[in-house]
Amino acid sequence: MVFRDKAPTDGESGGLKKSKKKQKRENAWRPEGPRDPFAMVSLSTDKKKEQQEIQKALHLFSLGTSLPKTLQQAKNHTYRFWDTQPVTKLGDHITTHGPVEEVDASIRNEPCLLPQGFSWDTLDLSSPIVLGELCHLLNENYMEEDDNTIRFNFSPEYLLWALQPPNWLLQWNLGVRVDANKKLVGFIAAVPADVRIYDTKKGLVQVKFLCVHKKLRLKRMTPVLIRELTRRVNQQGIYQAVYAAGTVLPTPISSCRYQRHRALNPRKLMEVNYPGLKQNMNLQRALKFNRLPEVTKIKGLRPMTKEDTPRILSLLEKNLSNFHLSPLLSLQEVEHWFLPKENVNDTYVLEADNGTLTDMVSFYAVSSRVLNHPVHTSLRAACLLYAVCNVTKMADLMQDTLVLAKAKGFDVFCALDVMDNMSFLEKLKFTISDKSVHYYLYNWKCPLMSPDKVPTLILQTVRVIGQRLGQCCAHSAVKTK
């Protein structure tokens, strides 16, 4: 494609000459000095020349076709990008363990190139201003329901919890800004994690909060973001990653149903048309169907304290050994992820007479804004993080958890059908989703895993993994040379 910097001459336009009035109208929007490539996206694209200039500013951000959501669709899809990456191919039968490709020691020192008008920025989240900018970007652009009625509303406290576990690195909080006005228009982060993949212990990263501004959505900013993050992760000697997507890529190590929902405040959920609820119920029936006890029935269930950390670690280590993909936690990490923080997360434990902890359950909070509603402005979801049952039945512990979450003002409780969650999901009236979420490992091959062998904790802050995040993850392993 040829881009022009000025209007075509009479000869180029076939002898048709524009009137001075029309030319003046076309030039009216042009600012003095360098143009802001991000602002250009907001311009009207009715005129051919304006379309060309927008394409010129952002032509490196073009994106191909959408990715398949099912294995059947994936069989007929050509993965031009993933065919060049160290991941297993769809249909391969893997029986061995180890890296798909040996480590390339040559890592470039210079940042990856961005199109003119954009610059990299390492976000210092200790600055309230920067943290506020990130909140604004995510809350306006991260993800929303298809009908544009519900949108995330991440708090600064939640983001610090999700992005600053022990051993986090500043350079892994990566942003993209517009040069002209310093507006934050892209973000991606990685946090370190030691995991056990079957019998192999491995240090890798979890990719989180991949977000591109709506004006640049479905553009090629995503692969550029991940390419630079990959380079920075490689500089620390880490070459594997874990991520999830709602689309099928080469190749899922495990797949499970999408988020299941259990209504805690059915009246409000029906009024805001919350997705996933049973559609054949009137309000009276919904209230009766989702009724919960007023109080918990497990005696001795109490909130976790800091002094419980060592005993919770011991309880987790024993339970996590049952899974094929599980985190290897330190005392500091247990304290960070599980110690209750107001409006961020909650953990409850059950203590035996001899002082040992036998059971525990933990969930975290994700708030959303309700848009264009005459009454409701917010929605609070509790998301299951982890549960261990040695003395009580899982269904009994989770019913008490629903009671506790409702008492704390949550409107809905969410869970995946991983671990042994199937033992309570249907019994406790969680709705069934027809969507799937897929788990992936980059540059690591191993046999496939059933959902009951993958704990929620491995991707504890990935609550909603839908089509747009799937598209983001489609380029999440761009190699750097």
TrEMBL record:
Q: Which organism is it from?
A: Xiphophorus couchianus
What Gene3D superfamilies has UniProt attached to this entry?
Answer: 3.40.630.170
Name of the protein: Glycylpeptide N-tetradecanoyltransferase
* Highest rank taxon of the organism: Eukaryota
Q: What does this protein do?
A: Adds a myristoyl group to the N-terminal glycine residue of certain cellular proteins.
Query: Per the annotation, which location comes first and is thus the protein's main one?
Result: cytoplasm
Would the keyword Transferase turn up in this protein's UniProt record? yes
Q: How does it sit in the membrane?
A: Peripheral membrane protein
* GO MF term set: glycylpeptide N-tetradecanoyltransferase activity
Keyword annotations from UniProtKB, A to Z? Acyltransferase, Cytoplasm, Membrane, Phosphoprotein, Transferase
Residues covered by the Glycylpeptide N-tetradecanoyltransferase C-terminal domain = 271-448
Q: List each copy of the Glycylpeptide N-tetradecanoyltransferase N-terminal domain by range.
A: 104-256
Q: Where is this region: Disordered?
A: 1-39
Q: Does the keyword Phosphoprotein apply?
A: yes
This protein's GO cellular component annotations are:
cytosol; membrane
The record's subcellular locations are: Cytoplasm, Cytosol; Membrane
What reaction(s) does this enzyme catalyze? N-terminal glycyl-[protein] + tetradecanoyl-CoA = N-tetradecanoylglycyl-[protein] + CoA + H(+)
**What family does this belong to?**
Belongs to the NMT family.
Q: Where is the composition biased (Basic and acidic residues)?
A: 25-35
InterPro entries referenced in this protein's UniProt entry, alphabetically: Acyl_CoA_acyltransferase (IPR016181), NMT (IPR000903), NMT_C (IPR022677), NMT_N (IPR022676)
Q: What is its EC number?
A: 2.3.1.97
